[in-house]
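job 3f2a | input accepted
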Amino acid sequence: MALETEPWDPAVRLSAPEAQAAYLEAAFEDGDPDLIVAAIGDVARARGMSSVAGSASVSREALYKAFRPGGNPTLATLASVMKALGYRLSVSPVPAAGGDSRPPAG
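job 3f2a | predicted structure (106 res):
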């Protein structure tokens, strides 16, 4: 007898804002651009693509295209969607070996 499986959709499990924030934080901590794009898309789908698209001033189709697997959103799209989701992008130094978190001198 074959094992029956169903596709897993993370958006179904992301109804709570706390879960969405933790999910995005984990994706950004990992640092993989494809994972980050997928996580933002999952949270947008959990919130409702039409609603997020309207708040981000992009079409729903453009949102699906940008955040699908293999999608490559522009920085403008990424920033507007993150803002529509209630987050902002920020920069912080990466700690160097030995705990020094200052950016390298240039």
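job 3f2a | The CA atoms of residues 48 and 60 lie 10 Å apart.
job 3f2a | closed
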